[in-house]
Amino acid sequence: MNDDIKNRQNVDKEKLVEILKKNPIIQFACEKTGIARATFYRWKKDDKEFAEHVEKSLAEGNELINDLAESQLMSAIREKNMTGIIFWLKHHHPAYTTRVEVTAKVKHENPELTEEQKLLIDQALVLSGLKPAEETSITNTTYVEETKSIDEKVE
Q: Is the pTM of this model over 0.90?
């Protein structure tokens, strides 16, 4: 790629990153710099360093906008704006949060395991080393016979 083109792209990338720090809207940044959105996303995909700078700038821009929004909310509250007051209380005071009440009858059913299921669990625990074979009712012959019968069922 031509050095002039590469230098111009780097300048455009830097401009994009700086704009995103103040206004974290990609469309806006692209319009301000005259770069197509498709080009922006191609650069972001192809250039890992640029992608990292973009993500950091978007985060910084979002923090800035959040600070501005909170500042405006505080101003609205000082001016006795009821919507602002209600919003603040609902999100910052436990007595005013939205509550949902759920009423239900819960029935716990724990069906008894079949002998085959118990045997499979014991075999799995023995094979995994979590349970010594002597602590189970499984004998070597039982294990071999049961494994064969399970294998036959699977086939």
A: no
